[in-house]
Amino acid sequence: MILLAIDTAAALCAACVFDSGAGSERGRVVLDIGKTNSKVLAFDAGLDLVATYDTASISDGTHLDTAHGWAFILASLKEIAKRFRLSAIVPATWSPP
Fold it and tell me: Each residue's pLDDT tens digit in the chain (97 positions)?
């Protein structure tokens, strides 16, 4: 069985794909979207960082430019998918209590 695990309690939103038959994680992608900078990080099954993409977030101080953010996320995921097998993409949000 392939399980999708989403961690929204961490400081960074993360999703991983876990293969219960093999007893191992396939990898994970972390989306860190902030007011000033945004990052997409890819980790392999051993949780070694294998790809990182970043950009300055475009904001008027109150709102992020979502078109810029979306284009950045898609471009980053396309580059990651050229090198690694992506089996799931899951959006998640996190905010401090």
Answer: 555 555 555 555 566 666 777 776 667 787 877 778 888 888 777 778 888 999 988 777 778 888 888 899 889 988 888 887 766 565 555 556 5
Cβ atoms of residues 16 and 25 within 8 Å: yes
Q: Return the C-alpha torsion angle 92, 94, 56, 69, nearest 10.
A: 30
> Measuring CA to CA, which residue among 69, 65, 93 is closest to residue 9?
93
Q: Which two tokens stand for residue 95?
A: 């905010």
Question: Measuring CA to CA, how many Å separate 40 from each of 20, 24, 57, 79, 91?
Answer: 26, 22, 12, 11, 12
Q: Is the pTM of this model over 0.85?
A: no
Beta bridge partners of 39: 32, 54
